[in-house]
Amino acid sequence: MDFALSPRARDYQARVRDFIRTEIEPREAEYHAALRALPDPWTRLPVVDELTARARDAGLWNLFLPDERHGAGLDCLEYAPLAEEMGRSFLAPEVFNCNAPDTGNAEVLHQYGSQEQRSRWLEPLLEGRIRSAFCMTEPDVASSDATNMAATAVLDGDRVVLNGRKWWSTGVGHPDCRFVIFMGVTDPDAHRHSRHTMVVVPTDTPGFAVERMLPVLGYLDEPYGHGEVSFTDVVLPADAIIAGPGRGFEIAQGRLGPGRIHHCMRLIGLAERALELACERAVTRTAFGKPLSNLGGNRERIARARIAVNQARLHVLHTAWLLDRSGPLGAYDALSQVKAAVPAMACEVIDMAIQLHGGAGLSDDFPLAAALAGARALRLADGPDEVHLGVVARTELRAHREAAEKENR
Amino acid sequence: MDFALSPRARDYQARVRDFIRTEIEPREAEYHAALRALPDPWTRLPVVDELTARARDAGLWNLFLPDERHGAGLDCLEYAPLAEEMGRSFLAPEVFNCNAPDTGNAEVLHQYGSQEQRSRWLEPLLEGRIRSAFCMTEPDVASSDATNMAATAVLDGDRVVLNGRKWWSTGVGHPDCRFVIFMGVTDPDAHRHSRHTMVVVPTDTPGFAVERMLPVLGYLDEPYGHGEVSFTDVVLPADAIIAGPGRGFEIAQGRLGPGRIHHCMRLIGLAERALELACERAVTRTAFGKPLSNLGGNRERIARARIAVNQARLHVLHTAWLLDRSGPLGAYDALSQVKAAVPAMACEVIDMAIQLHGGAGLSDDFPLAAALAGARALRLADGPDEVHLGVVARTELRAHREAAEKENR
Amino acid sequence: MDFALSPRARDYQARVRDFIRTEIEPREAEYHAALRALPDPWTRLPVVDELTARARDAGLWNLFLPDERHGAGLDCLEYAPLAEEMGRSFLAPEVFNCNAPDTGNAEVLHQYGSQEQRSRWLEPLLEGRIRSAFCMTEPDVASSDATNMAATAVLDGDRVVLNGRKWWSTGVGHPDCRFVIFMGVTDPDAHRHSRHTMVVVPTDTPGFAVERMLPVLGYLDEPYGHGEVSFTDVVLPADAIIAGPGRGFEIAQGRLGPGRIHHCMRLIGLAERALELACERAVTRTAFGKPLSNLGGNRERIARARIAVNQARLHVLHTAWLLDRSGPLGAYDALSQVKAAVPAMACEVIDMAIQLHGGAGLSDDFPLAAALAGARALRLADGPDEVHLGVVARTELRAHREAAEKENR
Amino acid sequence: MDFALSPRARDYQARVRDFIRTEIEPREAEYHAALRALPDPWTRLPVVDELTARARDAGLWNLFLPDERHGAGLDCLEYAPLAEEMGRSFLAPEVFNCNAPDTGNAEVLHQYGSQEQRSRWLEPLLEGRIRSAFCMTEPDVASSDATNMAATAVLDGDRVVLNGRKWWSTGVGHPDCRFVIFMGVTDPDAHRHSRHTMVVVPTDTPGFAVERMLPVLGYLDEPYGHGEVSFTDVVLPADAIIAGPGRGFEIAQGRLGPGRIHHCMRLIGLAERALELACERAVTRTAFGKPLSNLGGNRERIARARIAVNQARLHVLHTAWLLDRSGPLGAYDALSQVKAAVPAMACEVIDMAIQLHGGAGLSDDFPLAAALAGARALRLADGPDEVHLGVVARTELRAHREAAEKENR
């Protein structure tokens, strides 16, 4: 057992960290103020172009992609500390071209896309020229249960016809969003793992409409946003289908595993930043003649946050290691463990930091309120905590249940 | 001991409840949509005028004020179930002219105001013709410790000159906000309970400026809002002082006690509504072939929420009873108990309801996200939880400390 | 609404409190030491006789029984503060002849017993001459589900024959335990509320055997104890049946409601005592140059304990009021609420007090470790928390489910 | 980063695990029953001799000692999974000669002992022929603050004279306990890290007396036990001093670090076993027509326990790795983190398992109640949670405080 980062990961970590602290964090306040001042905040600001170019020049680009031809060739475990650093900042993931859901979409196209799909969509995505969204969750059903899905992708000769309503399509508000990946039911009578189909939908296809942008605890997260999207008789050639009809579930399984752990990695970084802010506040703010750090249970809360962040980080790293070794199926249970634990941990740490900041913590004078909204959403996105706990319990109980059944025979 | 409501309170409760359910709740969605559609949401919509007129005609008006000449003549305990009902709805408190901070300001003017102050400010306030704000908390210091206050109210002959910066001045964004009550230091060398002065400041006084509106977890709470306000050489005649120079702390103590318990009462109602929504969702939404109510720990969470709400309500009622019997000083410790406990309870219940709603719970399709923002703010407003816990502990330990000191002599 | 105790309850409360503090608490340490020193601790020590006589002379006797002929004629709400006082001390309930399960058994015999049963068993029980136990829970099945019960009470002409194994029969170790109330299945095919029969079983009946005494977290709770008891072809005349065959469930429902709330009342007192000890320790023990009360989160923990105890007390009092007004069925849901909440609250408060006492808190130098064992057992006895939470959730969801079903029709 | 165990550790782990499951666990019930049946349970039962001999023959002996001449030559990280396995069973640590406090005492003598001390005490200890205890904590002061220590070790020519009272001296009740390591103040005016001296005290020295054995939540933990010990003018030759006068604090620091992490490793194993038992119960016990695993929040509780155990394990392993790399000082903060987190985690998991077992869980029919007592004690032993949280917070805040101070200059 060796808990040291690989030299390569350590080097990247230092460079990403340095870039974020010297290039991104100092410009965050300016960025958010500029965005807020715009009449239309669904805009890519010049500062992002500038930072993006600089990150690319520095070789800090597409770090999430294990394929060396396109990215840094890092495995999931090596990428983890980098994603953690990026999680500190709302801006950083885009700057390094490592933003969800583009990362997941890129992985799907890289792994399952046709040559044409890759050249048309993956390449510009990996160059940061376009953005994308993922249309899976639906407003009218509990989407944590995939068998509830109502949207359809019906084959009609050499065409596929899409209908349905999706929401929480993150990134669909971005002015550069050029395509979405849609998932719908093709054959309701097939095995529940073979019913669904994924389709690449250009956002200028007739019948595709972004109905509205959804706030998360009051935050619209411009310029990415979370959209409610309607698909009304959207007709596409069959070659817009990814991998083939009925393979949607399989692709989703492969896509969601890494996606979930990337979210968790970033949340570790977000929680770290919240803890840093809490500590700064605790030593600089005075009440009743003492710094806040010397009042009441504040020190214990800070210590508990440190412990929680450290345990969660190790858990995420271990899961990344499993994922690298055994793939999404081998790490299935571990992925659910971290997905059930890390967002809730982050919410608690951020909420503690908010409380230490007083009213300021709830305003936008600090990045904490937005951080809470982001972390809170991840207790629901990509499967609510409770669904992941269910997976963990099922795995845990399986051997015991089988032993008990054997006993009873 | 008798836990039955007084007949008068029961009658009012039934009428308020009925009014809210039949008149207000059905129009809430429309109200919020209309407000959101406005280019300037800092507006009083006609529906509010309409509802307000109807509530007044129904005798459901100024119910918070114990003085029978102006209100219903209810004591705090009788008002509690009415405030709880109002807490269910963002709109209801204004409709019944029972909105904070107008209620607290009205109490201050009623109890401490001069004849002139009352006729000029209290009367139109009680008629709902104007609104008001309260300027106490400051951005640059930990305001939970009153001795930190930096704003000044300097006597200069028959004038008083105000300087300083305040924030979280709730209601200052309302188009009808005509005056604020400002608190500042007059004599920094006086006893710490005699340093401060309260002054009525018309919002059109030169030197008074609303600098910006502050979001709470992304919510600006239009059209009331929470403002950051600057006072720059604001000059007023000395008769704008309430009760007299140096009496600010005394007035604040009297004002904040009832104010805190009113917040708690409303939060009970808000938590009740969140629990109702959670139950509705739990029985109507299906996943994995079962209603959510039959999945995982959802039932236990609902049961725990019911228990928490019931315990908190009894705690608030008991505190109101103490307040009626013994005044703010006699109920000082109990007020801190409920203020430390009820907002946190409400946050947990609302958060649970959000989780049961999935992504929808975080959006504005349900009133839950806004409810969370409101409840979360009250873990900080009027004293953060930790300060109130400190009061409770001090009271709890006092007798033991005195006994220990006696022992040691 | 009036939160003041009735004058009668207040008077009793003062007398009981005074008796416990002046007569019982000063002798507790001596009592426990004496008992521990005995080769056979299943003994009634002379000090108990002495205290019992004094309590009886003071008119503090059978306070639990609402019937004025036998007790003080107090209703449940009036008894609550007295039971709370008794809960402070392991010894007190017996001293006032208010010890479980004798209280519940007395209520059963008083309400359902035949004339002969009452004169043979109830009278000496109310005079404190004998003790009793209640045999319901079984080792081999989840007894929280009454339909699991395996023990049988078979009618055979004018006799009834008992077989089965029971455990957690509290009090069966006492040298004065003369009878138990046994519950068994008589007609497995009857409606599930009419299957069971209760029988009075003298402890000297052939076939009745106490197999062993069960520890609770290492405590045997001598001289009462919790026994595992076997019934092997125990034959009794049919007039040993209480109320009639098949009425066991009905009697149990009536018995368990008050029994549960009595446990909760006593736990409030136990938690109060733990909180007192915590405060004493916090102000008298010094580390790192400060009293423990000024270290870390100790004050917040003490404040939270105060709030939790106060909320729980009000909850229990409200439930007692409901029970007095509406009977066990009307208070069914409320009883489950307090039973699910109060033991867990007591465990937390006691555990906090233990932590403040360091190692001493885990030893028997303070009554805290035994208190934790007692409170922890009550998270299981008379229905585990989870079963009561299930009742609360079912009640909470019922109206919503019915509304949803109506909607769907 | 590589989360795989070293081949050597994996091999030992398999052998230790196998030995425990096939040799120890099947005999535990018999062992405890036999011990309980003894008139004097302060006895080493033959089964222990037998198992001990077998373990030694199998080369599973002194695994804790990094020195290859005496033990397996494993570093702390390699020992961790072995200690975890041993933690499953009350008996296992002694069987493998890896029992606290003998392990810590052996390390002290190995590292600091004179040649004579080592041959007289260390050798028989490592051969399992004698046992030992550690006398540090005192009843009359908060021993978490070492400067409170009152016991004295006064130099008098070539002799040292010990006086004072110690408690929680674990293992002092064992019939083979032949020596204790005593810590006392030698020079109260020296720097607080140079005041104390450690002395080897044979248990047959005049003036040494075990006053009583202390229960932990009702458990005396025979035959090891936790003693209160008095030292009354205990006179020893100066060569009984370890390392030299005034070096007690230094030795304690070195001793307590590994000691704390060993406790945490074992607690991971104990929590694992509790979780296994919980799962077994959940799938085999039925109520309301379903296995407990399908009722209420039980699955979520099991899932959360799995997550908590996994996170804690990784945290402990990481800390062991730090300890191997950087020594007790370099791992100081990490050691406090795990010590503050792991015992509390274990208590929660065990308590959850108890609740799933119903009353049986609180009795001695399962090892859960004793496990809870053991884990609960470790929230206090070797520093209460709160002291360790204080260390963690101090470390966390240091850089922020220094930055703030720099700012202010």
Overview of the structural elements:
The structure is a homotetramer of 409-residue chains. Chain A is α+β, with helices and mostly antiparallel strands. Chain A folds into 3 domains: 7-113, Butyryl-Coa Dehydrogenase, subunit A, domain 1 (Orthogonal Bundle), CATH 1.10.540.10; 132-242, Butyryl-CoA Dehydrogenase, subunit A, domain 2 (Beta Barrel), CATH 2.40.110.10; 250-408, Butyryl-CoA Dehydrogenase, subunit A, domain 3 (Up-down Bundle). Chain A has helices spanning 7-37, 46-57, 76-87, 92-95, 102-112, 115-126, 248-284, 298-330, 332-357, 359-362, 368-377, 385-408, and strands at 131-135, 152-156, 159-170, 177-185, 196-202, 208-213, 226-237, 286-287, 290-291. In chain A, the strands form 3 sheets. Chain A has a 4-stranded antiparallel β-sheet with strand order 2-3-7-6, with no helix packed on it. In chain A, strands 1-4-5 form a 3-stranded mixed β-sheet, with helices on one face. In chain A, strand 8 (286-287) and strand 9 (290-291) form a beta hairpin. In chain A, helix 9 (332-357) packs antiparallel against helix 11 (368-377) and helix 9 (332-357) packs across helix 12 (385-408). The longest helix of chain A is centred in the middle third of the chain and has 37 residues, at 248-284. The two termini of chain A are 42 Å apart. At the A-B interface, strand 8, helix 10, helix 11 and helix 12 of A face strand 8, helix 10, helix 11 and helix 12 of B. Chains A, B, C, D: One of its GO terms (cellular component) is cytoplasm. Chains A, B, C, D: Keywords: FAD, Flavoprotein, Oxidoreductase. Chains A, B, C, D: Homodimer.
